[in-house]
Amino acid sequence: MPASVPAAETVAISTARRGAYLAVLVVLPVAALAAGVAAVWGRGIGPRDAVIALVMYVISVYGISVGYHRLFTHRSFKCGRPLRIALALAGGLAAEGPVTLWAAEHRRHHKYADRPGDPHSPWAHGESGWGLVRGLLHAQVGWFYTARRRSDRRHWVPDLLADPDVRRLDAAYPGVVVLSFALPAAAGGLWSWSWAGMWTALFWGGLVRYALVHHATWSVNSLAHAFGGRDFRTRDRSTNLPLVAYLTLGEGWHNWHHADPTSARHGVLKGHVDPSARLIRLFEQAGWAYDVRWPDPDRIAARTLPAGPAEWSGGAAHGGPSGTTGRSGPPSGVDGEV
Ligand SMILES: [Zn+2]
Ligand SMILES: [Zn+2]
Fold this sequence. Notes:
This protein is 57% helix and 4% strand. The protein contains 13 helices and six strands. The longest helix is centred in the middle third of the chain and has 29 residues, at 164-192. The chain is globular and about 60 Å long.
């Protein structure tokens, strides 16, 4: 734990809990992906399982991007109670933790991004090639196990803890994780009317899908802080990375997200397709979402870096090319306004 983080911001976690994180967040997803690759290699995936897995993938990724991230962590929009609960449940299907824990870690990430105190910077092990490899592994999944302390929810998400619905959702989280596997299994069993169909749907729509969702999400923490283009002025090393953006339904336009964390749209440049922003727009048009913080063109212009090579692929000094460190405080909306 870096000394620069005040003790009140984090809490110690037990060895048993770290072991559970190791099993559920590190080992099992890798095993599921390996089994998925072996299964594709051997027998392929049938259309029924592909459809079930894709639907589960889209629901859980939207739950993370629109629900956990843009709504609960950053308050990019407001919505009625039914949609709020539905988005939290969808995020729970990703099996990335209860919403308060997810939001607490992520708010700390914004405050300390790529500096000591960031829970998952790929630059945590220095600038060398080997240091970046270690850092990428740390940012992808390593920190789940190696961190001895977690962000203290009382410090980071008092607003969420004060919401009775959120507390109920936290309590219901283990049940939602069970649903995350039971739903695709039931869909496969009923669709095929067979036990075999239930098991293969559990494998593809449950296990392999959860592993893919995890690694797509975590690649925002690792790859989108190490490789790709920087179009906007931030004091961290966030980037815009198309492949990650496609896999995460818009979350890979991470450089603008750090430049303006409360923006409901992350992809603000031409070609930066952001399906999560489109979904929020649909909610707004339906009257279900309101007070949406759409990006302000003046703000985008003010934060756009001067044209020129802004590709970062590691090795550059912290802060990058001159002009990228012009801001002295945390990224806007991080302290108190996430
Ligand atoms: Zn980030
Ligand atoms: Zn964020």
